[in-house]
Amino acid sequence: MKCNDVELAKYHEREIEKIGGRQAYQAASVLSVKHFSTSKWVLSSLRKLGFLKLGRQDNNKSLSLLEIGAINNELIEAGIRSKIDSNKTRINVRAIDVQSQHPGIEEMDFFNLPDPHHVKKSDNVVFDVIVCSMVINCVPTPEQRGQMLSKIRRHMNSEALLFLTLPLTCLVHSKYIDRDSFRKLLNVLGYQLIEEKESPKVAFYILKLAQNSSPSLEKHSLGEKHVCQKLSVIKRGKKYRVDFGIVISSNSSH
Description:
Layout: H1 3-18, H2 21-32, H3 38-48, E1 62-68, H4 74-84, E2 90-97, E3 105-107, E4 127-133, H5 142-154, E5 156-167, H6 169-172, H7 179-188, E6 191-198, E7 202-209, H8 222-229
Parallel strand pairs: 1-2, 1-4, 2-3, 4-5
Antiparallel strand pairs: 5-7, 6-7
């Protein structure tokens, strides 16, 4: 791990302590996913998009999946079942969380996951699918949220999918960000939107890496850079009480 990665992880740890420590961090995630099943959404979407095919002809076919901030073992169990059924694509699941509550979940801060460019083998740090459900809203600062979205990109292979969810209130009631500016931010980072939907409480996004695109602030319009590089109040009024925002620095976008 590079020196600046270590420093970032330590900073992230300090910021988690400021919001009540690891238990408070994880409690927020558990509460957020109480009313919906991430695993059902992910698996049904993978089937619909052709990533999970019944009656596989290639017995060596498998799918690598990273779940960030895992608070249950549903995707882990789905991976186990896929290896038993010879008609299903095998799913190799690596689940991590800052404070594991299940033996199958690796206790690790995502910021400590080695960068693929700085390890000899990328087998277990580059993935076909990454699931980041109700995690970005628990990251303490706008700058770290931008760093997380940028880091996720580096752990995706060229055809990978990112399943991202966050509380709808983060986009609807934030004074700093809305649905449109969030889409622009994802575009600046080099993501392409495949699908989005909303429930009464949750915003769901399926993303892939944009073709022939590397994340860079320089190639985007002044308006897009303004949206991403600093927090600006874009909505005023009593109902815009949420302080959620995301900032992408020039370093984060590479």
